[in-house]
Design goal:
It contains 13 helices and twelve strands. It is α/β, with parallel strands linked by helices. An eight-stranded mixed beta sheet has the order 3-2-1-4-5-6-7-8, with helices on both faces. The protein has a four-stranded antiparallel beta sheet with strand order 10-11-9-12, covered by helices on one side.
Length: 365
């Protein structure tokens, strides 16, 4: 493998774009080639200096690389891989970023590429999508699951792990079956639940849209991911159907039991139900990003006067801290602070807390 690595990234959506930006930022010596069907996206990637070469059609030149990342939706990845097979060399290691692994592994085996494929899944994301929402820090401290085929040499696996680590992510080895089962439970089913809750509120709302008007705080937090791409999640559910059906069935059984206990006024059960969930939830690590991406959010009290928000934004900007999102909390449901701010990374979050407290702001973390 050459000293200067070359990476080809096929698909510049949120994950592919964030991967490209992370490699560009943290491994500046790496040459990046990109492919996408959207010309504006390619132009932007070139203008930003993220990409050294861009392609709007599949080309054999994309195979002249050390690492080839398939970053389109699962079905498109399979098509792109098949189209490029005649041009692949043994020196190119293939990976992907899909949240479902079995389909791509099956295709790899059909094509006889088991000695050069390491499946990948950055356990991070956003309710937004597309290259223009991509950010290098999206991978920061995120688990990046790797599912290497058994024929890939340990040396290549180790080298790829080290490369992924350089992007700021945390490599995590799993086999294919365990990965798809895990993501069904902690990512795919929660997305279905978030969307079903939103649709429930929509269907039960009145003419004055009362439920929508009051849907703040906790409801907005637990349904945030329902704003994601419908097409992407349609594919994910169909590709990982069996594990999702298993956990959906278990969840429906649990809801049925909960409904029965509530109808029986079983106070002991209800207390234990909430307490067990609270204790287990509190045991989750509070570092890194999961499939429901960790948000770096803080709340702070500000005076009700003209320029108060601008002063906060200017203070953080003067310390080179970028604000990802900011808004007024109109309904303080289970939270303190009137201004809600989301930062891009853990380091910026910690820096912002120190600065804001230094200047006398009451910060609620």
């Amino acid at each position: 493998m050459s000293q200067q690595l070359t990476c080809s990234i096929l698909g510049l959506g949120l994950i592919g774009g964030s991967l490209a930006k992370a490699i560009h930022e943290r491994c500046p010596e790496t040459k990046i080639k990109v492919y996408d069907i959207d010309l504006k996206t390619l132009q932007t990637a070139m203008e930003e200096g993220v990409a050294a070469e861009s392609f709007s059609a599949l080309s054999p030149a994309l195979c002249q690389c050390d690492y080839l990342f398939l970053c389109a939706p699962v079905s498109i990845n399979l098509q792109n891989l098949e189209a490029l097979v005649p041009f692949l060399s043994g020196n190119t290691l293939i990976s992907d970023v899909g949240s479902v692994k079995m389909p791509i592994h099956q295709k790899i085996r059909q094509l006889g590429l088991e000695d050069r494929f390491i499946g990948g899944h950055p356990m991070t994301g956003s309710e937004r999508f597309g290259y223009f929402n991509a950010h290098a820090s999206l991978l920061e401290n995120a688990y990046y699951v790797l599912t290497p085929e058994k024929k890939v040499s340990p040396k290549r696996v180790n080298a790829f792990q080290e490369f992924i680590q350089k992007t700021g992510a945390i490599p995590y080895l799993l086999n294919v079956e365990d990965h798809d089962r895990a993501t069904a439970a902690i990512s795919h089913v929660p997305h279905l639940l978030a969307s079903s809750l939103v649709n429930l509120v929509k269907d039960e709302d009145d003419a004055q849209a009362t439920l929508k008007a009051l849907a703040a705080g906790g409801f907005k937090d637990i349904t945030r991911i329902a704003s994601s791409s419908a097409g992407l999640w349609q594919q994910i559910c169909l590709e990982n159907r069996e594990p999702i059906l298993h956990f959906l069935t278990r969840y429906i059984d649990q809801l049925t039991g909960l409904r029965e206990k509530l109808s029986e006024n079983d106070s002991r059960f209800l207390y234990d139900f909430f307490e067990e969930a609270r204790v287990y939830r509190e045991s989750f690590p509070n570092t890194g990003s999961g499939p429901l991406q960790k948000q770096y959010v803080l709340h702070l009290d500000i005076p009700d006067k003209t320029g108060a928000i601008a002063n906060v934004a200017a203070l953080l900007a003067s310390h080179s801290i970028s604000i990802k999102n900011m808004g007024i909390v109109h309904h303080r449901e289970y939270q303190e602070g009137a201004l809600r701010m989301e930062l891009y990374s853990a380091s910026e979050y910690e820096k912002a807390v120190v600065i804001l407290k230094k200047y006398g702001y009451a910060v609620h973390q």
